[in-house]
Amino acid sequence: MKPLENIRVVSLGQYMSAPYCTMLLADMGAEVIKVERPGRGDPRRNIPPYPKTDEENPTGGGFMAYNRNKKSIVIDLRSEKGKEIYKKIVEKSDIVVENMRPGATDRLGIGYQELKKINPRIIYSAISGFGQLEGYRGPNTERPTFDIVVEAMSGIMAQVGFEDRAPQWTIYGLADLYSGLVAAYSTMLALFMREKTGEGQFVDTAMYDAMLSLNERMVMLHSFTGEMQPRGRLRHQGPRAAFKTEDGYVAVNVPDNVIWERLCKVIKREDLIADERTASGPKRAENDLFVREMIEEWLSDKKLDIVVDILNDNGVPAGPVKTAEDIFKDPQVEARKMLLEIEDPDYGKHIFAKTPMRLSGVDEVEKIPAPKLGEHTEEILLELLCMSQGEVENLIEEKIVSKKG
């Protein structure tokens, strides 16, 4: 059993944020109908890496990763017949998720104001760069964006990297995935609220808002001190870094004097507990190079795994800096079942990261591969909208819809 069984989601999502949001919902049992444009569908279908295959136009790995457990229907939403089909699907659904440019669905006549007329219970969840809810529209509302742009504008990039180099991005797609997670959570709140009111609502997720909220420490720090955190180091606590061992790097964070005292005892430098250069977080931050040299001197002849055990056994939380290869071999990852193997009928078996929700009463995630373009067009028209086979064939002939070739 899954918590979102019998909940139907219509997705106008493309690239990453909305597809990730709807994947979270699909993994929890929702029926997700992915509406794609004729011809190429979601642009992420055509972005590498590609599976090893002789197929001329294979599906990109990113699309396969974020679109498992979904159905695909191809509809020409520029046509009046296509819009009517879309509206009929929404009429029988609970949620719409989209990350089109603000105003795009309104111009097509399929925005929230139009859809709630035919389904007052619909929850319309829109992800955009800068938000679009009336009363909260800013000067950037109409702008399109990508993850690196909102990382930059939210102040995150200004803190990543080193002071003598250009600001750096974090990980590919962080803003998209976190915004997708925020949208999924907000959508669940709206669904819960609908149980009380019987009415749907508009859910507005701005990638910029999501990243600024994730960067809450920067806001707090500036409010308290008027300072901006410099790239690559802290001003008020430490050490906090990856330190070199004989065969790798260990990540250590010392947020207070309690952990610092434990670390000093481990590295046999109790003298540093009361040393004026290291007696407080700000002093340790100020003398970061000295602190690093002391720690790495102790680490220089020690194996990474041994160091991690010694530090954790002595109350200093620490962990190895791992690569993708390490993750695939990690017994903790295996125990948590965080890698999901999915077999695609055309491309074979591939491994993807599982979503992190764990509920004791919920079955394991399904392993249905990402759909082929238009794979479920006929099924949805015949079974959900109760069209005849002749009606469907006419729509295909008119190129209003298309199915898997």
Plain-language structure description:
By secondary structure, this protein is α/β, with parallel strands linked by helices. It folds into 2 domains: 8-214 and 335-402, Rossmann fold (3-Layer(aba) Sandwich), CATH 3.40.50.10540; 249-320, formyl-coa transferase, domain 3. It has helices spanning 17-27, 61-66, 80-91, 104-108, 112-118, 147-153, 174-197, 207-214, 216-225, 257-266, 281-286, 288-299, 304-313, 324-329, 331-335, 377-384, 389-397; strands spanning 8-12, 31-36, 70-75, 95-98, 123-128, 202-206, 240-244, 249-253, 318-320, 339-344, 348-353, 401-402. Helix 1 crosses helix 7 (174-197), helix 6 (147-153) crosses helix 8 (207-214) and helix 7 crosses helix 8.
Largest sheet: 7 strands, mixed
Q: What is the 3D shape?
A: elongated
Average pLDDT metric: 95
Name the beta content range.
5-15%
- CATH topology (level 3) name of the largest domain: Rossmann fold
Compute the number of helices: 17
CATH top-level class of the largest domain: Alpha Beta
Helix content: 25-40%
Q: Which H/E pattern describes the elements?
A: EHEHEHEHHEHHEHHEEHHHHEHHEEHHE
Distance between the termini: 34 Å
Give the structural class: alpha/beta
Examine the secondary-structure arrangement and name the CATH architecture of the largest domain: 3-Layer(aba) Sandwich
Low-confidence stretches: none
What is the C-alpha radius of gyration, as a whole number of Å? 25 Å
